[in-house]
Amino acid sequence: MANRKTGQSFHRKPSSRFLPRRETFVGSEPGRVVPRAEILEQLWGYPPRRAADLRVVDVYVARLRGKLEPDPRNPELILTVRGTGYASQRVGDGGPAALPAAS
To answer: At what angle do helices 36-44 and 51-68 cross, to 10 degrees?
Structure first.
């Protein structure tokens, strides 16, 4: 896989679970909001028992953005839906997808 910023290839670490199972998290349904709890259960195999468990997802998304986004501080591929989770948009869609407001 190539780094979008540098064009250099990099090897996935065994913990890079988002990449091989990307359809679980992003990609299969651009614009679909995926709750943090669902990501945790699908990728790490356990439901959140406390708020700190969901921070694992936030940290991992930040690291993933660092590898995939041209500017991780202004993400274009993996979008945060405040208070809910994350959504993606297809590369080349032009702008952020219209996402529902968090309730």
So the answer is: 80
The per-residue pLDDT for 35 is 92
Torsion over CA: 81, 24, 28, 18 (sign): positive
Number of domains in the chain: 1
Amino acid at 66: G
Helix (H, G, I), strand (E, B) or coil at 5: coil
Q: Give the CATH number, domain containing residue 79.
A: 1.10.10.10
User: Quick check: 87 and 35 in contact, CB under 8 A?
Assistant: no
Q: What is the pLDDT of residues 39-70, one digit of tens each?
A: 898 888 889 999 899 999 999 899 989 988 99
